[in-house]
Design brief:
Layout: H1 15-27, H2 33-37, E1 46-49, H3 53-59, E2 69-72, H4 74-84
Antiparallel strand pairs: 1-2
Length: 100
Amino acid sequence: MSWSKESSTKRGYGYKWQQLRLAALKRDKGLCQPCRRAGRVTLATAVDHIMPKAECRRLRIPSDYMNNLQGICKDCHDKKTMKENGGEPIKATGLDGWPV
């Protein structure tokens, strides 16, 4: 089944995720953490799994914990996702950041 046909809740982005997302953004003061580490100040527009969810599943470790989450801007998130995708750009993403 394609990700685009499943609800965000079924993909693991329901109420619990929204609460974690808000907590991560608050902890990171709404700033993109990769930009901050590079000496830039940029508004975070998303929360990213530092270790991708698929990798966490493969290793059988939980993915949704605070130490695995970071505020991130769209540019940094797109670059990180492309790198994780073997250099292939993602053609389109939904509002929740998943490929469609």
